[in-house]
């Protein structure tokens, strides 16, 4: 699968990298149990620093999508869904709100009014 970053996306680079990998998992390019390419290869494919990819991979591990084991490649253990999708949507909402002049309290009030 061809991985590309959206240069217009205002999020930090490691979050954009995590989003690309998350999307690849969600679309079935990497099924649960399958290994991801090495971080160096992902960095070359995305034209970013290896440390940026490693930071993105750690974030995906925290979300429960990836598993790290010493001496083995990083493996997919979950599907990009539920919490991961909510986190992406919330991040996009907060980014949009900041660029349009809303503060966090206003965003929270809007969300509470929808609940």
From TrEMBL:
Annotated HTH gntR-type domain residues: 11-79
GO molecular function term, any single one: DNA-binding transcription factor activity
Swiss-Prot/TrEMBL keywords: DNA-binding, Pyridoxal phosphate, Transcription, Transcription regulation
Pfam families: GntR
Keyword DNA-binding: yes
Entry-linked InterPro entries: HTH_trans_reg/aminotransferase, Tscrpt_reg_HTH_GntR, WH-like_DNA-bd_sf, WH_DNA-bd_sf
PANTHER family: HTH-TYPE TRANSCRIPTIONAL REGULATORY PROTEIN GABR (PTHR46577:SF1)
Protein's name according to its UniProt entry: GntR family transcriptional regulator
Native species: Thermocatellispora tengchongensis
């Amino acid at each position: 699968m061809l991985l590309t970053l959206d240069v217009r996306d205002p999020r930090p680079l490691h979050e954009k990298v995590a989003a690309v990998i998350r999307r690849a998992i969600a679309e079935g390019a990497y099924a649960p149990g399958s290994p991801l390419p090495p971080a160096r290869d992902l960095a070359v494919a995305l034209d970013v620093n290896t440390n940026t990819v490693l930071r993105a991979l750690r974030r995906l591990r925290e979300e429960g999508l990836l598993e790290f084991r010493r001496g083995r490649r990083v493996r997919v253990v979950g599907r990009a869904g539920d919490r991961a999708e909510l986190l992406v949507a919330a991040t996009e909402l907060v980014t949009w709100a900041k660029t349009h002049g809303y503060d966090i309290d206003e965003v929270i009030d809007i969300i509470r009014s929808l609940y």
